[in-house]
TrEMBL record:
This is Long-chain acyl-CoA synthetase (AMP-forming). Residues 32-330 form the AMP-dependent synthetase/ligase domain. InterPro entries: AMP-binding_CS, AMP-dep_synth/lig_dom, ANL_N_sf. It comes from Anaeromicropila populeti. It holds the Pfam family AMP-binding_C_3.
Length: 491
């Protein structure tokens, strides 16, 4: 089915009592599974739509949506999309001052929140109240929003720099890219997609829309409830950052049981599709999961474009990010995309939109093999030139080390010396839960071909991570930010 707008998407739920969304709710003594059919969710969206309109929200409104990962977020987001209001998305955990400054800078009139007490400049609406139906609520018939040019949302992404940037999200790009990804992956109405990373991150909303359009069930969770949710809700599809899969493999090594038994006890018996992206993952980890008969499928995309390359069942090559699902080309080793419908219209700089071209250089170094599989070999700007003129890619070295040892992460950067040469700094990050042998790590690093070829002085350091470091050096999706880590150690 072709979806031209969000009205088409959400009204497709009206008669769908076969697919559902489920999530866990604490009832005071334990977790209770809440399950709603798409048809029931459509009714809740309709209630929310009517209540928002009665509050004065209309197509010209700018509304802050400041809620954590909850069913209320999806319902409110859907209703606002139907009204045509522009949303400013936040994760429900922003500091009050930063949130107020951000909302004010975009002239936001309302903010929907679940916070009990918050001092903001905008009119505040309690999210829970929007799903209630009382005598004063008159159900309004849903109407399509015809404005295709306006950005549906402004969201904030740290991207590769680790510094949040304001991005404009387009309607047509969102619908086209989401549908294109789900069609290519061939998810079925029997599948259930676990969405647990923050909904304030565009990617998770993108996945929820794809599920609705393609009649795929949804399990909604969060980072704290993930393992409970996997066990009790039994999803079949999980997208997680590489760190999640590294940590699970280390857990199995400590456990001593068979790989398959340990992974199934954690991920559930119905899991059939493990997806990862957002950062490189070492081939040793991919081989580990293949040996355990729990295949990981690498996918690759960018916030601005959506999914670009994907592995899938029957077409999965370890080390590659799969085959392209949009028009791409490689120029001077860099991947260039030509998307008919980019997700992002552009970046907001000082409140003004700097529009993005449909043809876009990704900044990623890439090659294609004879079968059409693509391989991403790090960021173009991360390439280091050593004192002897040799070029190395730090990300590939970092992933080799991380794939073999029980550590948190590795970061490599150069530091200039007084004689205009460079020291190659290799910082191995670990926490109290890691059991790696530092001597073996140091020996392995010094024997690596890339390190032996360096004429730079090589310094290896081991750094015990503090809780505040984890908040600073990782994004909301659990992706390690090299830029933030390097900035921390250089200071």
């Amino acid at each position: 089915m072709q979806f031209h707008n969000f009205y088409d998407v959400f009204t497709s739920m009206k008669d769908n009592d076969k697919n559902h969304i489920d999530y866990l709710l604490w009832n005071g003594s334990g977790y209770e599974t809440i399950k709603k059919t798409f048809q029931e969710m459509y009714c809740d969206i309709s209630k929310c739509y009517s209540n928002l309109v009665s509050q004065g929200i209309k197509a010209s409104s700018i509304v802050g949506l400041e809620i954590e990962n909850t069913y209320e977020f999806l319902v409110c987001d859907s209703a606002l999309l139907l009204i045509g209001a522009q949303t400013i998305i936040s994760n429900g955990r922003e500091k009050e001052e930063l949130l107020d400054e951000r909302l004010t800078s975009f002239q936001t009139e309302y903010v929907i929140t679940n916070r009990k007490s918050v001092n903001l400049s905008q009119k505040q609406i309690a999210a829970a109240s929007l799903l209630k139906e009382d005598g004063s609520t008159t159900m309004i018939e849903l109407q399509p929003d015809e404005n295709d040019e306006k950005d549906i949302s402004i969201m904030f992404s740290s991207g590769t720099t680790g510094i949040p940037k304001a991005l404009g999200i387009t309607k047509q790009g969102s619908l086209w890219s989401s549908n294109n990804f789900f069609h290519y992956m061939e998810f079925t109405p029997e599948d259930k997609f676990m969405i647990f990373m923050p909904l304030s991150n565009y990617q998770q909303r993108f996945l929820s829309w794809g599920c609705i359009m393609n009649h795929v069930n949804i399990s909604l969770g969060n980072e704290l409830l993930l393992f409970h949710s996997l066990k009790l809700l039994e999803p079949s599809i999980l997208l997680a950052a590489p760190n999640f899969f590294y940590n699970l493999s280390y857990e199995q090594n400590k456990n001593g049981k068979s790989k398959n038994d340990v992974l199934k006890s954690i991920l559930g018996n119905k899991m059939r599709y493990l997806l990862t992206g957002m950062a490189p993952i070492d081939n040793n980890i991919l081989e580990f999961y293949r040996d355990a008969e729990m295949e990981i499928y690498q996918i690759y995309g960018q916030t601005e474009i959506g999914m670009i390359c994907c592995n899938k069942v029957g077409l999965n090559k370890i080390g590659s990010v799969g085959k392209p699902i949009i028009d791409v080309e490689i120029q001077q080793d860099e991947l260039i995309t030509n998307s008919p419908n980019p997700i992002v219209s552009g970046y907001y700089i000082d409140g003004k939109l700097d529009r993005m071209e449909k043809r876009r250089a990704t900044g990623d170094l890439c090659k294609m093999d004879e079968e059409g599989f693509f391989y991403v070999n790090g960021r173009k700007n991360d390439t280091m030139v050593l004192n002897n003129g040799k070029k190395i890619n730090p990300a590939s070295i970092e992933q080799k080390i991380k794939g073999l040892f029980d550590i948190k992460d590795v970061v490599i950067y150069k530091k200039q010396t007084n004689d205009d040469k460079f020291v190659l700094n290799i910082v191995v990050l670990y926490d109290k839960g890691n059991v790696a042998d530092f001597t073996k790590i140091e020996e392995y690093i010094n024997k690596m071909g890339e390190i032996q070829s360096a004429t730079d002085k090589v310094e290896i350091q081991f750094y015990l991570m503090k809780e505040e470091d984890k908040k600073t050096m990782y994004t909301e999706n659990g992706k390690f930010s090299r830029a933030k880590a390097i900035d921390t150690f250089q200071k």
